[in-house]
Structure formats: C-alpha cells, structure tokens
Amino acid sequence: MLAREWQFDGLVGPTHNYAGLAHGNLAAAKNAGAVSNPRKAALQGLEKMRFVRNLGVPQAFFPPHYRPQIAELERLGFTGNLASILSTSYQQAPALLAAVYSSSFMWAANAATVTPSADSNDGKLHLTPANLFSHFHRSIETPFTTHLLHKIFHNKKLFTVHNALHAVEIFGDEGAANHMRICDNHSSKATHILAYGKSREMTSKASTYTARQERLASEAIARLHGLNPDKTLVLQQSPEAIDQGVFHNDVIAMNTTSLMLLHERAFTENDQEKLRAVFSNHPHLNYREVLNSELSIADAVSTYLFNSQLLELGEGKMALLAPSECGNHAGVRMLVDRWLGQGILQQVHYLDVRESMRNGGGPACLRLRVVMTAEQEQSIHPSIILTDERYAQLDDWVNTHYRDRLIFSDLCDPYFVKELDAAYSALEAILGMEGLYDAYRPSSLL
User: Rounded distance, CA 241 to CA 297, Å?
Assistant: First the structure.
C-alpha cells in the first residue's frame, strides 16, 4: 500500500528553560543559566511545522507535557503545600526542581522508535516509547508519552503501542534519534539501522561522556517490532564522536529513504564498513560520507548540520531544512552548496530554531517520523494534525499564555504554576482532549 512520511513535532512547552541538565550535550551545558524565551521557542517550532506543511509534507504535533510534575518531588520526600514544596526544593535541590519543569519533551525524535507496517512481521505500525533512562528529567517523560501515543494511535487493528523497555541501565533507550530506515521509497520494505553507544561486550568506549543508547535496547526493539533480522543492522556509534558531543546518532548522520548523509566517523570503523556495504550492494541508493578534513566533528556538532531535517518531496526530490547556524558557517555552507550542485539535494532552507539549538536540539530533534498508509492516516486522532486553522489556534494560544522571559527563580513561584495550568486547560479545550492532563495536575495549585 502507498504510504507517506508524517512529521510529528513536539510543541515546545511554556516552561522552556536553560537548566543544562543533559550531560554530554555541549550546547545545553554552554547555555546553562541563560534567560530563555518560551514564547519565541514555541513560535519558532510552529513556524517550522508550517514551513514543512507548505512543502507538501504531512505535519502533525505532540501536545506539550504537563509541567511542573510536582508529584515527582513528592515522591522524593518534599512535603507540604505547593508553595512549600517549590520553596524547599529550590533551596535544597535546585537541579530536581529544574528537572520537573524540563521542556525537553519538545525533542520528539526521542519520544519513541517507529516501524512502519511495510517492515513489521504482522503488518501493523509499531511504536515503542523511549524510557530515556540516562537522565532523570527525561525519564519522567515516558508515562505521558505512552499515554499520548495510545490516544493518537488508538486503532489496535492498525497500530501497536508497546510498553517502554525496563527502566534499567542495560535497556537504556533514546528513541528514533538512533534509528534510520533505508529504502527505495516510503512504501517499500526497508533496511533498518539501529545505532547504539553502549554494550557490555564492546572494547572501545567513550571516556569523556557517557553513551546513552544500549545495544540490548536496540535489539529488543527490533524483536518487538518484528523486523527482518536479515534487513536489520545494529551498529556502534564512534566513541570519538560521543566524546565530542554526539550524544545521539542523529547529531552525526541523517537519511531519508534512498539518501544517507553522514560523517566518516559516525560509527566505529568496522561498523561504518558494514553500512558502506549495504549501499555498495544497492547502487541506486545514495550514500555520501563527509570527510573529517571537510568538516570536523566539532563543527558538525556546533552547527548541527546532520541534525537538519531531510525530507523527500516526491519523485526523488530531496529538501534539507537546516538550522540557520549552518548557513552562517562557511564550511558547512560550501558543503551544502556542493550537494545542491551535484543534484543530491534539490532544495535547502535555513530556518531559525535558535531557542531549541541553544538547548542542544536542531530541526531533526524536534520531530518524530511516522510512515503511514492512507488507512492509518485516517485512523489517528485528528486534533493533532496541523491545518491552517489549527496553526492559527496554536499561534494565538502561545502568544496568550507563554512568557517571553523565563529565569530559574521563576520556577519556585506557585503563581507561575497556576498560570501554567490555565495554559494547559486552554489547550485541552482547543484540542478537544478534556482531561488530557488531569493525572499530572498538582493536588493543590496554591
């Protein structure tokens, strides 16, 4: 059956801030403590979604998670009314307070791993929410993500939403940011690439930063989704790249259907050779490595070239949505212009997602790719599809409820929590999802 790739973007939440919680994410660490602008961040994300839709690519979104998660602080021993819990955690454990306010769910590439029905052994579309075990502030995303996926992909005849893998180190799973699908087109069967950074068996390991994705997690997802073992490669990320800030594979490699663009040091030497073999055996597929002499890993990380959004527009035409930082870097600009001249790309667009970039997430981080047939498209929850009307509603909602300046001390203000709850209530009404956030609201807002 004919299928299309949908882009599901995470709608940036009203608590977008720079807490520097993600170890190994260089941009997040660099900007820790800076003043954030949640309104601008959300509007930049919305504009990117609209831009993609105007290119003819189907676009949807994930509503933001409820924040702050006061129940998580209560589980950790903070007691009293809301004001007391916020004040005490601010004084005694500011990192925990920042964690329960985190808006990192905006990076939907980490929400889940997805297998289209063309590739699963039962003909259903499979989704496994990521457990995000490597960081506390991300691990608390999993329950709501799971709830949301069940709500959106509710037809059990067409979709299977699995439980997240066990939240223990050996099954640490970071979602689709470490997954690539190589195929002729979105409707055809594919070869799946599952990248990992950690395994008890490997001899070469990152030494500066801790790798996040576990090999056992990647292998488990391949089994759960019914992938063909003969068309599945589980490859190790280069420890050298991880130690330079490549915390996910999508920071050093990108692909869509028949095109793959990656750095020559994305994977270990042996595993990079395995990937080359896949493409050499299929000459109609397009594989391009960027040499370190052309672009260093450090420059790839600072510009997030490989975290650009690569889109197939039909008839083999490829478009690249790169962050504006790429357009401002002479070496990256030269490389992209060469891809245009060689006909590898037909369009390049440089977009402003600076608020996300400052926290370590580019255009590709903001979206989860979901390939669906026409029947599956008709079965998803309609309220999360981006239409002109929905865009206008969300734009107005953000401008009404989001602050244009947020600093860390704002997080201990109970009136800010009340302000946030009003925003979430308004969104529930817009989406027709009353009660979406009920399980996450504090028992007392003031």
Answer: 7
- What are residue 127's DSSP bridge partners? 114, 161
Of 126, 213, 224, 128, nearest in space to 173 by CA: 213
Phi-psi region of 319 (alpha: psi -120 to 50; beta: other; left: phi over 0): beta
Question: Does the active-site annotation cover 16?
Answer: no
pLDDT for position 26: 67
294 in catalytic set: no
The catalytic position among 174, 214, 312, 355 is: 174
306 contacts: CB under 8 Å, gap ≥ 6: 250, 251, 252, 253, 254, 261, 262, 263, 300
Q: Give first-to-last CA distance, the chain, whole Å.
A: 53
Among residues 63, 10, 19, 13, which one has the least CA distance to residue 38? 13
Amino acid at 29: A
Which of 65, 135, 248, 263 does the annotation list as catalytic?
248
Q: How many CB atoms lie within 10 A of CB 97?
A: 23
Tokens of 221: 């997802």
Q: Confirm whether 201 is a catalytic residue.
A: no
Closest CA to 213 of 174, 271, 268: 174
Task: For residue range 327-363, list pLDDT tens digits in order.
Answer: 999 999 999 999 999 999 999 999 999 999 998 899 9
User: Residue 340: which residues within 8 A CB-CB, separation 6 or more?
Assistant: 346, 348
For residues 349 and 323, what is the distance between their CA atoms, to the nearest angstrom?
Answer: 8
Write b or e for each residue in 287-305: b if 16 or more Cβ atoms lie within 10 A of its Cβ, otherwise e: bebbeeebbbbeebbbbbb
Contact 209, 24 (CB under 8 A): yes
Cα separation, 12 vs 8, in Å, equals: 12
**In the chain, what's the furthest Cα-to-Cα distance?**
65
Could you read off the pLDDT of 148-165 as tens digits, one per residue?
999 999 999 999 999 999
Catalytic residue among 312, 329, 349, 365, which? 365
